[in-house]
Design a protein that fits this description.
Strand content: 15-25%
Structural class: alpha+beta
Radius of gyration: 17 Å
Number of domains: 1
Largest sheet: 8 strands, mixed
Order of helices and strands: HHEHEHEHEEEHEEEEEHE
Length: 229
């Protein structure tokens, strides 16, 4: 990996292909060994309502066809043409959100409350999951499945935006080499392993508690403004 010997590149799969793939417990073990406890996804409050109503975080293409959620859904990023082939996948990050993506989204929707959904590392071993070494829209991104795909997100050197190499200097074991690395989960991510919803402040914490009340899920709600900056 240190010499850029990347795993075979992954292509988007059809639903039946992704669901027919084998799970990989080795990835989950490796993630836990690194101290990874959370795979994260940021969304606005109205997005949270749609997610809970759907019992899953769902890919951008599918959400537009679901009557129960399409009217509350609002994309976090307005223009994803550069990764249009991957719109069936849910974009996630390891340990911390992609601040380079979150900051402009939050600026565009500054009047709305935001939350971070935190899932256990068990989801990394699910069938069809793809690992991208940097932001999925960048030409330098290497996307791969399986254990080697997971491991190369932690390679000593990873090319990022404009192909600029980034290193593991000052990165913790539970952080990817490139802060913009992505986990691409196929089609829909069930909420079975949702363990925490992180919010900015106590007011949003109260809002989320009220939203959760009718649903069967009982994640912890934690106020942590540092997670958003």
């Amino acid at each position: 990996m240190s010499r850029m010997e990347w795993a075979p590149e992954a292509e988007p799969q059809r639903r039946e292909e992704a669901e027919g793939a084998s799970p990989c417990s080795r990835i989950v073990d490796a993630a836990r060994h690194r101290g990874i406890t959370s795979i994260v996804h940021f969304t606005r409050i109205r997005g949270l309502v749609g997610i809970l109503a759907s019992d899953a975080v769902i890919g951008r293409r599918d959400v537009e066809h679901r009557k129960r959620v399409r009217f509350v859904y609002g994309p976090n990023v307005d223009d994803r043409k550069l990764d249009e082939d991957w719109i069936d996948y849910v974009n996630l990050s390891v340990t911390a959100i992609n601040l380079g993506l979150f900051a402009p989204s939050a600026d565009r929707h500054s009047d709305e409350e935001w939350v971070i959904l935190e899932f256990g590392p068990e989801i990394l071993g699910d069938p069809g999951v793809v690992f991208s070494t940097t932001n999925n829209i960048y030409p330098a991104a290497h996307r791969s499945r399986g254990f080697h795909g997971f491991e190369q997100m932690f390679a000593p050197i990873v090319p990022g935006r404009y192909g600029k190499p980034g290193s593991r200097a000052n990165r913790r074991p539970n952080q990817t080499t490139d802060p913009q690395a992505e986990v691409l989960y196929p089609f829909e991510l069930p909420l079975d392993h949702l363990h925490t919803i992180t919010v900015r402040d106590g007011e949003t914490e109260d809002t989320v508690a009220g939203i959760l009340a009718p649903f069967r899920y009982e994640p912890s709600i934690e106020a942590n403004p540092e997670a958003f900056r």
